[in-house]
Design brief:
globular, mainly alpha, TPR-like_helical_dom_sf, Serine Threonine Protein Phosphatase 5, Tetratricopeptide repeat, about 475 residues, three-stranded mixed β-sheet, 434 Repressor (Amino-terminal Domain), single chain
Length: about 475
Amino acid sequence: MGQPRRELTPDRSPLHLWGSELRAWRDRRRLSLVKMGELVRYNPSYLARIERGERKSPRELAEAADRELNTSGALLRLWELIDSNPNGIRHSNHVANHPDHVANTRQVVAPTSEFPAESDEAGVTIPCRTQDGGIIFVTLPRRTFLSGLGLGTMAAASASPSASAQSSVLGSPQAITAPDLKPAEHFRQLRRVLIDNDNLLGPLRAIPTVESQIDAIRQLRLSYRGTDANELLYIQTQYAELCGWLYQDTGDFRSAQFWTDRALEWSYATGVPDLTTFILARKSQLAGDMHDGLTAIDLATAAARQARPDTRLGAIAATNGAYGYALTGDNRNANQMLDLAHDLITDRDMDPAFSWGSWMDDAYIEIHRARSLYAVGQYTDAAEGFRTAIENLPATYHRDRGVYLARESLAYVGAREPEQAASTGLQALGIGQATGSARIITELTKLDGQLERWHSVPAVAEFREAFDGLIAHQA
């Protein structure tokens, strides 16, 4: 058995902080000291001493580590401040106190989770314009995709002051919690902020924070027993479900399945049946997004079987199951399930303390009716359904509005209304550019191809030119 890792002391001095930062980035890239040594051409034992703060890194090592770990200058900037602050006093504008800084919280120094997501080199598929004008899907490393380089969608968000402010909140739990809060309440509040940010800015900014918080919760649970430990496990499961949803929205279904499976596994350990039921329904939704109708039906049926009657869980399961039926061409059962969902949220007294599915209302169900109508080829009815339901969406559902607008535009194409399709597609494109939602971009990729036959229509030409300026192009 190997020796346990020595705990680092980043608060001791800037030198120690830089070493702990180096280890945190190395852990995030899942590199051993030996592998790291091969990349930067330094002895692993020498690197270990630097991580422990026993030696100062040479500048060339700092530059090499920054480059090989792809830290966008973070390691080098921190290294340059070591000698300017020898007493270890952290000023408010110190790079190590930047909210997005990987060393900002203690948990990143701890060993990483034994349940890692796919590596940064795993593939994420995006649309790319070929030299002959067509569109193909290419695979980029997740590292590139999450930085926004694949779709070109993050530049506008990064330049936005409001986006920067939101990003600061994501990385700074202290900004939203009081120091006397219990750990479980701290993570609960941060999760609410992450969900709000996802609705406004999409998943790309939230994913790294959510994954790091899962690691933090797992480490924190080692110090707790009894009720506190169980509460942290419950919150850890909620974070895993959220992480699965965020990856689902980027179109990275492998990672979405990974985290949703972890959430289901951990939900059984919590002993809370409602949580397990909700995640089963979420897995049904994920199967539907992957166009696996039979699996969507099976998982929705399992969720409905164990849903308590005074919760929205039965309605969530019925809604997701309906789309599964639509994917198999069974419009009759799809409509019956959607009618059942309406009945379940209007004819029952809901438990006021039950938070899962708070977004489940009549407008949400009708959005899914429109999606099911599109799946079975009833395009005019689908377009009308999308338009009516979108009008009733809360203003805060920014990203979701973009998804539904993109699907509405496809329904107009099916109904042979190219001008309306292009106009609606442009609205969705603006939201897709701001949020980086792969669901929006994927739907608009279909729209771009289906509008090609009407390329001479001015509104269509305008949409296709705007879309062409957004996506990647073949070199």
